[in-house]
Amino acid sequence: MVLLWISVILCAFAIGFFFYQFYQFKKARDLTAFNKHFLLVFIESLACFTLFSITAGFGIKMWNNYQMSGGHMAMLFFGCLFFGVSFMGILEAFTLYFYKTNLDAKIRKIIKTTMLCLIPFAVIGLFMSLDVYAYYIPEGGFPFISGISFTNHGIVLQRGTGVEGFTIKWYALCILSGALVTYFVCDHHFYQEYKRHGLVDTMFVLVFLMGILGARVWYCFVLDRSTDFWDFSGGGLAIMGGVLFGAVSGIIFLILFRRYINLRHAMDLILPAVLIAQAIGRWGNFCNQEVYGSMTFDPSTVWWLPQFIVRQMTINGMMHLPLFLIECITNLAGYFIIVYAIGKGLKKHLSNGDLFCLYIVWYGLTRVVLEPLRDSSFEYNNSLITAWIMFGGGLAGILGLHLYDYFRWGKRTFIIKDDPRLNNPRNPYYQKPVEIKNNYERH
After folding, report:
1. What gap in Å lies between CA 19 and CA 42, rounded to an integer?
2. Cβ distance 430 to 259 under 8 Å?
3. Structure pTM?
4. Which of 11, 37, 90, 271 has the greatest number of C-beta atoms within 10 Å?
């Protein structure tokens, strides 16, 4: 137990120390490269967080008195080591890349490459650590603890619903984590376009709150009308409603308070990033042992999957299809395909709004494929219909945008000023070009 408290202190110190020193580094606008002091801060923070990861890993082992083999001890050590170094490295690289923009171009490229390369190592390290524990947790330890409740009788580790008191659910933390990651991604995309952070701050809070409200409304009044809207202890959120309410509120906000931003382009920057939030949020279903598939397997035949996933998805001796994992991978793949493969690769052939519509197409198609695979206890009558509507509506939206652009702008000629800032309709400094008549007289 002492090791766990030490690890918590180390974690808080490492992250707090880094951000305090980074704030000082950021204020020094003349610094375009690392100095020795900040390089030392970088290394110290990395070392402290890595030590936190290792002490936390072995603290959990000692607290539960797990008698591990030598191989599993080594696996736990290296898993915690990989996770500690990689996660803190990602956090540091992310912060530098996004908020210290006057660094030398070569250094920024190295930082970005480092950040992207460390992501798989962080995932591998975390999976290695969790996989070790899975072999020693007794059968009664599954499903995993889904939350912590603070009651009059003390702290209660929760594995279901019905516990009184203030409760922190891992499901909620997964949703919040996904939302925060998406916020930073969107903020970066807007910064790349408009050279200013904070354009989506207020909108993020509004969209997040409306998304939660919409997810609850959709679940209670569309999917499961028997559920009491105010009975939050039993859970129940539907992503489709969250996306709909969030998107509508975001569009209204942009129209009213961000008029200088092209609305369709803003939706291209925001909506595909929602796939990241959905990918992370699906791990909340894993924590709650819910929304799994109807297909079952003998746990011994899926040895290639991490054991903590196999055992969490094993019910009555049979493992169910882990739909949460499939959708997580599908959503992440969708983000990179839409934003980079299509958004970058086919940039010359796209209209503003295409990526927004492609998000609807991708998510609708994902739901069309996965909804029929759900276990009967998690089936909802209207989900498949809604998924087909999203898929068809997204395709119709792409076609409609291209036809609108062709007939609205395709046959016109414009005079545009030489200033490159004004030549980009996605820039807030953009000025609408002046149309020319055939007799070359302006009007």
Report:
1. 10
2. no
3. 0.82
4. 271
